[in-house]
Amino acid sequence: MTDDSGSSVGTGPSTAATGPSAPSAPSGPVGFAVVQVHAWRNYEDLEGGQGREVFFRPVRFRPADLAPVEARVAITCAGETTDCRLHDVSQTGVAFEWHHASPLVHVDQLTLAFDDYEAYRGGCRIVSIREVEGVTIVAATFLDFLINIDHVLQMRTVRQWRQTPSDRMSAVRLPWHVDGHEGFKAKVAEFRLFMEEAKRQFGELELALPWNVVNGVHNAPGHQALIERVRSDFVPDVVRFSAEIDALRRLADPEEDTRLKAYSRLHVHEYMMQSPWMARALAKPLGYPGDYEVMNYVYARQFEGPNLFGRAVSYAFLQAPASIAVRARKDMVRDRLRSLVQGWQESRPIRILSVAAGPAQEVFELLTGLEDIPAPIEIILFDQDHAALAYGYGRLIETIAAKWAGRVRVTFLHDSIRRLLKDPEIFRSFGAFDAIICAGLYDYLRVPTAVDLTRNMFSRLNMGGEAYIGNMAVENPSRWFMEQHLDWVLIHRTRDEMRAFAEEAAPSGHVSIMEETSGVNPFLCVRRT
Description:
The protein is α/β, with parallel strands linked by helices. Helices cover 39% and strands 18% of the residues. The protein has three domains: 14-171, Beta Barrel (Thrombin, subunit H), CATH 2.40.10.220; 175-319, no CATH class; 334-527, Rossmann fold (3-Layer(aba) Sandwich), CATH 3.40.50.150. The protein has a seven-stranded mixed β-sheet, sandwiched between helices. Strands 2-1-5-6 form a four-stranded antiparallel β-sheet, with no helix packed on it. It is elongated and about 120 Å long.
């Protein structure tokens, strides 16, 4: 077809009508679709037409360019109205298919509509009639006014948004929707309101305090008072909410957990991620959640964060049962090792192996807390994380040099967990041990692997030696935030299940259960008799 000037209007891509567009924003929390558009460009870098393109020509659109908006062309001649199929349309005119037996010479009225929107009704002038693949195409220009093609393109954008049934904004299709579980939803929503108010109040308090008090610099007297206030006024509610939400989550079927997780994350995840240790556990920079840096937060760096609210959140979740259990199990193992050392009556060295040692906090506290040792101590620390061993090396070598030179020797063994689980000879060259510690690894091991590793460690015990094997219990009330917000999934076991795999691995040994003070992280004690 031609425009009013008679110049030919060529077919071009429909995107030419859109022009430079703003960059797309990320999808919102409910997963709204975002139309793909072009990135921002500087105004002076924009390119215009070249050659014949410098003469402005309205862009024409084919029906496919406007889908799912449907166009209708109605031609009235001599009192008879014929519906025609749109071929293309522009701001100045329209081309349509003519299937009538009589040739079209004059049009009394042309009507052009897009869905329910009538874009044009009036006179037109026929400017060309041509055959395209056996179909007669009539091109006409509008005489009364130009149509607003932007209106049609805006309709197209609205119609295209979430066009497929799976994308439509229906509650049953939103990732966080799950029928029922009103108790879980209400408690999570209430927790969000609590956290919003806490963030506001902590923000006001932080503005009223000097920086050194909030950050504990130069032993600021108010810093400890601040921690105590957080402990008394904020922590109990966070721990209570966490336990109540965990209990309500347990009422759901496992297949519903993905949606409950999405619901929980939508409401409270942003507040939890103010905690540096929780953010690191989720990010897993070393490939797993409970790396040595996370353990250091649990043991010693509890009141840290980007602001006072972040510090309070970090501290509060480090007072949750699972976090308390990690510290309590460290204390329990340290005390068992201290009893071993202090009660030693043999002339040979005391030999200790720590498997998946991490920062080796219990060994560090053992060596710094002892006043005397009756015999030399030889310690093997095994871990696949080189950074964890490097951290332990820095602290332990310094402590040994200052206090136990010539009396304590530590070997740092860097090897893979894969080899640990597959090679029963991995520790044979190191001899036998009086105590073997494995505090957190079994939380990730299936039963057959747990049996094999326990059998291997039992074979490496001296007569009378003991292996201490920890496993989180099924009643752990911290599973909600660990699994839904940190992607920290453990294999929880009952005490009977723990005892069963230990007795299968060491039928000649004596198996008992040791309880740390929280009751969340029981230990097996497998003794070689």
